[in-house]
Each structure stands twice: as structure tokens, then as C-alpha cells.
């Protein structure tokens, strides 16, 4: 038995390295998020209520916003006119996402899989993609009227392009070795597409779908701003024109729940379908 | 020292066996840049024989392998396997690449029956699973049949790809630098495994490699290729007794053979 060396005085003692974790690594994520929320709301409260630096018409106080959140929430829960508006927007978003996925995927396969698509179709798609798509809104309204159809069209139009691009990119993701393997196995073009290229491209395609989920929300609300109707966008515009700023804030917050729901739905399906991707290939973001 | 003294170069153990694979006056010129990748290559593989081709990069050995596999049409000449000309990919040609290329969304055993699935459909693939399990046990992966490839090491993945190559009972195995992506220890081990498997399956094999030691330890014959234009400059019969062991690498005879090949490749190999 030997006595433990005195680390401070014994020159032969091994150096002891103490690796300390950074503070942020020791705090759980929810606590960090909560802390940030408290800080932001605190400053917000300071600026509006306590100091009065900002006019309530420009930025309502947290208290007013909370009251309005409860008001709108009550209306939604009790099935008031706001719920009807939210339902209208939800339907718009749902149909637009479905249509964008169908068209985006089909065009993506056309562009990514065929020489004709790559040479003849792709340049036009790139040209259209560079246009500010919101500018097409008056056209959609003129063609499809002030009902939900014109909003669906605008939202789908905006969301289609990221899906086209990601699908086309995904189809090119299979490696030279994998293609050679399929060729050596005598695989047909369809077999190579469905058993190799599409599964390999799924992580890319889902990245596109997530971007589309965001785009479809923006398109639907823009459509409702410009084309009126019964959706949440129209509600927001009305409130804003009446300078009911707290209500605008509350409506935006509830609207964001719809966007989050769609995004997480896509993420959930991705997790189920692309279980094998350990994000060692690009496209596994999110 | 248990090794035999240098013996005269005989025709090799498989010379009397039935010819399986005939490559006749093959040449390949790429139309794009008029590069003569291969010129007048003729060789025959006998049943159960292991033949390697060595040569520097760009000597046409990969082109030769692709033509033999039916993945690339030759400019002139022909390839005949089991009496039938090779005009495209065939089920009786087994191939193995430098990368295991297992599909990550399929389990090991599903990957192994993939060639059957592609050629004969899902029902046939399902029926091939017992045979795939036998093959997995043959390479020592019996317990890994139902895991996904992300859980396999590099050597394990290549062993799985050996099984995938063997699932269709190919008449010939074409090996394109199969272990060159592995570390050296694993590579030695895999070469011994490959020898054992080839012996058990009585396979006819054709190996393309950069490694002279690998070629010598595995082969009955080695073809030395030189570039510009790609051609076979010499055929060397390896008279080391079978089964080969890793200890043979340290014998004088092994060193002689490697030195001889290195001479043949000469400066070409490093240009």
C-alpha cells in the first residue's frame, strides 16, 4: 500500500487534466429555450409596458398579446368564425401540398431520369423558377376566381419547384458503383429507377418536401391577402387594416401552428420511410 | 524451410480441365478519343482455375473485365462463356467490386438475394433466402443476416458482397480489386477467405488487382498487362502448392515470382 501522492507538492505526480463541459452543454435544451423566451419577453415588456418606448399600435405589449391569444383561442375552440377561417386555410394548404408533390415529383423524375427532360424541359423550369412567383397571383385569381382554387394554385405553384429540383438531384445521388451493380445484375431501367435511384434519392426528396411545406404556407397566405376569401390570411389583413395589432400577432402565432404541423408531418413520414439514412449522405438535414 | 525449390514452369494444375471462358482476339478502341484500350487479347479460363491480371493504371485491365462481364461491347473479338457468346450482363457471371455497395435500406440477407429479385422477381428472391443463409454461414456472417449494412464493418460488407456474387451460382467470378479498399490485415484475411470459398465452390475466377502479392498468393496464372495499347505481355504460372498460406509470402520462391513480375512491369508501372 502506498499513500496517494500529494498532487500539489509531489513533482512525480501525474498531471491531472480536468475537462470541464461548457455551460451550454450542461443545460438541457428546454431550459435554454425557456431562458431565451424569458429574456425576449422581458425586453419586449420593458419596451412596451414599463418604458413605453414603442407605441402599442406598432408593437402591443405581451399582456395585450396574451389576452388576444386567449380571445382567438377561445373563438377557435368554441368553433367560431376564426375556426372556419383556419379550416379554409388548412384545406388550401393541404390541397396545394398534395398537388405540388404530385406535379413536382413527376416533373422531377422527367428532368432527372430522361435526356429529353434534362435538355428540353429543365431550362424552362429554371427560367420560371427565377420569376417572382407571387406576381402570378392576379393571373390565378383571374383564371380561377376569388374562391379557394386560386389560392391553392398559387401555393402549389410556389411549392412545386423545390420538389422538382430535389427529386431531380435525388435521382442522380446513386453512386457509379451502385449503377454498375444494377447494370451487371441485368436490371431494367424501371428496376434501376424504383429499386435504386428513388430510394437513394429519398433523403433529397424529403428535403424538398420540407421546403415545399414552408412555401405552401407562404403561398396560401399571400393568396388570401391578395384574393380575399374566407381564410386566415384575409382575417389577418382585416385586423391589420383596423390597426388591431395584438390580434394580428395572435393570428400569426396560431397560423404558425398549422405550418409546424405540416412540417412535422413531413418529418415524421421521412423518419418512417428513410429509417436507414444515418445522415451520412447529404439531404438528411432536419 | 518447407517450401519447394524453384520448379520448372508447368502448365498449372487446371490445364487439363474443361475450358469455361474463352476470350478471343479482343480489342477495344474508344470512339470518343480513339484511345486503343485493348489490342488482341486472347485467353482461356479452365474450370476451377484462378487467373489474375496485373498492370499499371490505364493498361486496360478494367476495360477487359467490363467486356468480359458484358458491360461494355468490344470493338472486335468475342467472349464465350459456357459455349454461349457474352452479349450483355448474364446471371452466370458473378461480379464483385472494390466497394461492397450494399443497399442501406435492405438487410444483409435481402441484399444477397437482390440479384435474384432483379432477375426473377420477389417470390424467387424469397425462395432464395435459405441458400443466402447457407452462403452467409460459409463466410461467417450467419448471425448478421438480419442487420442493416450500416452495422457491418468494411470486411464484413465485402464478405456479404461475396455472398451476393455467389447467390446465382455463377459459372465464373469476376473480381475487380475486391479488397483494395480494406486495411492490409483485413485484406490478407479476406484473401485467405476468398481462397477457401473458391476451393469449396470450385469457382472459376478472374481477378484484377494492383497488388502483386495478392495476385501471387491467390492465382494459378497471372497475366501481366502493359498499356498503350493495352495488351498481355506475359503469362506466369504460379507453382506454389495449394492451399496457399500467408506464410508463403516470406518464402524465396514467392519473392522470386513477385520480383519477376515487377521486372516485367518495369518502369511502365510507375510512369
Quickly describe the structure.
Chain A has eleven helices and no strands. Chain A has 286 residues and is mainly alpha-helical.
Quickly list its features:
heterodimer, A: 286 residues, mainly alpha, MetI-like fold, 11 helices, flat, disordered C terminus, B: 271 residues, alpha/beta, Rossmann fold, 2 domains, six-stranded mixed beta sheet, four-stranded antiparallel beta sheet, 9 helices, 10 strands, globular, disordered N terminus
Structural class of chain B: alpha/beta
The total strand number of chain A stands at 0
**The CATH architecture of the largest domain in chain B:** 3-Layer(aba) Sandwich
- The proportion of residues in beta strands of chain B is 15-25%
Helix fraction bin of chain A: over 70%
Number of domain units of chain A: 1
Number of helices of chain B: 9
Unreliable stretches of chain A: 280-286
Categorize the overall geometry of chain A. Answer: flat
Terminal CA distance of chain B reads: 37 Å
Number of domains of chain B: 2
Could you describe the 3D structure shown?
The complex is a heterodimer of chains A (286) and B (271). Chain A is mainly alpha-helical. Chain A has helices at 23-26, 29-50, 62-77, 81-113, 115-130, 137-144, 148-171, 176-184, 189-227, 232-241, 245-273. Chain A starts with 22 loop residues before the first helix and ends in a 13-residue tail after the last helix. Chain B is α/β, with parallel strands linked by helices. A 6-stranded mixed sheet of chain B has the order 6-7-8-3-9-10, sandwiched between helices. A 4-stranded antiparallel sheet of chain B has the order 2-1-4-5, covered by helices on one side. In chain B, a hairpin with a 4-residue loop joins strand 9 (221-226) and strand 10. In chain B, helix 8 (212-218) crosses helix 9 (252-265). Chains A and B meet through helix 8 and helix 9 of A and helix 3 of B.
Helix and strand arrangement:
The complex is a heterodimer of chains A (286) and B (271).
Chain A: H1 23-26, H2 29-50, H3 62-77, H4 81-113, H5 115-130, H6 137-144, H7 148-171, H8 176-184, H9 189-227, H10 232-241, H11 245-273
Helix pairs in contact in A: 3-4, 3-11, 4-5, 4-7, 4-9, 4-10, 6-7, 7-9, 9-10, 9-11, 10-11
Chain B: E1 19-30, E2 35-46, E3 50-54, H1 61-69, E4 76-81, E5 84-85, E6 93-96, H2 108-112, H3 114-120, H4 122-127, H5 129-138, H6 154-166, E7 172-176, H7 184-201, E8 205-209, H8 212-218, E9 221-226, E10 231-237, H9 252-265
Parallel strand pairs in B: 3-8, 3-9, 6-7, 7-8
Antiparallel strand pairs in B: 1-2, 1-4, 4-5, 9-10
Helix pairs in contact in B: 8-9
Amino acid at each position: 500500500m502506498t499513500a496517494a501522492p500529494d498532487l500539489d507538492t509531489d513533482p512525480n505526480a501525474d498531471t491531472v487534466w480536468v475537462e470541464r463541459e461548457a455551460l451550454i452543454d450542461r443545460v438541457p435544451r428546454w431550459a435554454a429555450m425557456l431562458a431565451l423566451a424569458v429574456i425576449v419577453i422581458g425586453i419586449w415588456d420593458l419596451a412596451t409596458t414599463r418604458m413605453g418606448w414603442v407605441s402599442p399600435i406598432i408593437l402591443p405589449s405581451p399582456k395585450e398579446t396574451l389576452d388576444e391569444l386567449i380571445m382567438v383561442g377561445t373563438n377557435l375552440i368554441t368553433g367560431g368564425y376564426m375556426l372556419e377561417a383556419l379550416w379554409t386555410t388548412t384545406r388550401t394548404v393541404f390541397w396545394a401540398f398534395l398537388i405540388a408533390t404530385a406535379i413536382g415529383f413527376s416533373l422531377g423524375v422527367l428532368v432527372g431520369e430522361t435526356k429529353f427532360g434534362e435538355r428540353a424541359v429543365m431550362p424552362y423550369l429554371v427560367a420560371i423558377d427565377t420569376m417572382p412567383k407571387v406576381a402570378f397571383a392576379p393571373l390565378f385569381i383571374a383564371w380561377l376566381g376569388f374562391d379557394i382554387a386560386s389560392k391553392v394554385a398559387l401555393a402549389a405553384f410556389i411549392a412545386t419547384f423545390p420538389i422538382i429540383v430535389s427529386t431531380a438531384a435525388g435521382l442522380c445521388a446513386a453512386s457509379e458503383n451502385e449503377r454498375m451493380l444494377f447494370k451487371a445484375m441485368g436490371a431494367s431501367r424501371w428496376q434501376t429507377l424504383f429499386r435504386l435511384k428513388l430510394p437513394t434519392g429519398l433523403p433529397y426528396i424529403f428535403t424538398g418536401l420540407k421546403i415545399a411545406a414552408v412555401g405552401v404556407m407562404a403561398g396560401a397566405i399571400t393568396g388570401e391577402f391578395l384574393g380575399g376569401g374566407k381564410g386566415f390570411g384575409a382575417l389577418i389583413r382585416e385586423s391589420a387594416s383596423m390597426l388591431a395589432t395584438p390580434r394580428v400577432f395572435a393570428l400569426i402565432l396560431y397560423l404558425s401552428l398549422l405550418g409546424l404541423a405540416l412540417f412535422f408531418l413531413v418529418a415524421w413520414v421521412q423518419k418512417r420511410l428513410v429509417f436507414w439514412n444515418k445522415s451520412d449522405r447529404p439531404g438528411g438535414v432536419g | 524451410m518447407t517450401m519447394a525449390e524453384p520448379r520448372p514452369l508447368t502448365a498449372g494444375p487446371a490445364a487439363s480441365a474443361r475450358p469455361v471462358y474463352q476470350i478471343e482476339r479482343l480489342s477495344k478502341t474508344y470512339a470518343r478519343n480513339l484511345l486503343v484500350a485493348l489490342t488482341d487479347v486472347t485467353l482461356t479460363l479452365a474450370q476451377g482455375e484462378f487467373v489474375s491480371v496485373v498492370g499499371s493504371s490505364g493498361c486496360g485491365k478494367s476495360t477487359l473485365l467490363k467486356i468480359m462481364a458484358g458491360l461494355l461491347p468490344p470493338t472486335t473479338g468475342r467472349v464465350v462463356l459456357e459455349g454461349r457468346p457474352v452479349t450483355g450482363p448474364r446471371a452466370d457471371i458473378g461480379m464483385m467490386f472494390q466497394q461492397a455497395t450494399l443497399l442501406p435500406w435492405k438487410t444483409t440477407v435481402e441484399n444477397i438475394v437482390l440479384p435474384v429479385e432483379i432477375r426473377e422477381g420477389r417470390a424467387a428472391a424469397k425462395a432464395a433466402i435459405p441458400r443466402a443463409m447457407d452462403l452467409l454461414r460459409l463466410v461467417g456472417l450467419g448471425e448478421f443476416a438480419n442487420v442493416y449494412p450500416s452495422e457491418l464493418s468494411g470486411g464484413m460488407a465485402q464478405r456479404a458482397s461475396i455472398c451476393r456474387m455467389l447467390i446465382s451460382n455463377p459459372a465464373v467470378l469476376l473480381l475487380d480489386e475486391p479488397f483494395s479498399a480494406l486495411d492490409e490485415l483485413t485484406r490478407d484475411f479476406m484473401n485467405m477467405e476468398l481462397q477457401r470459398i473458391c476451393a469449396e465452390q470450385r469457382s472459376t475466377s478472374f481477378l484484377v488487382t494492383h497488388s502483386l502479392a495478392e495476385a501471387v498468393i491467390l492465382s494459378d496464372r497471372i497475366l501481366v498487362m502493359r498499356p498503350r495499347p493495352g495488351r498481355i505481355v506475359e503469362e506466369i504460372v504460379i507453382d506454389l502448392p495449394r492451399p496457399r498460406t500467408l506464410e508463403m509470402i516470406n518464402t524465396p520462391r514467392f519473392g522470386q515470382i513477385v520480383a519477376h513480375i515487377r521486372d516485367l512491369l518495369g518502369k511502365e508501372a510507375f510512369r
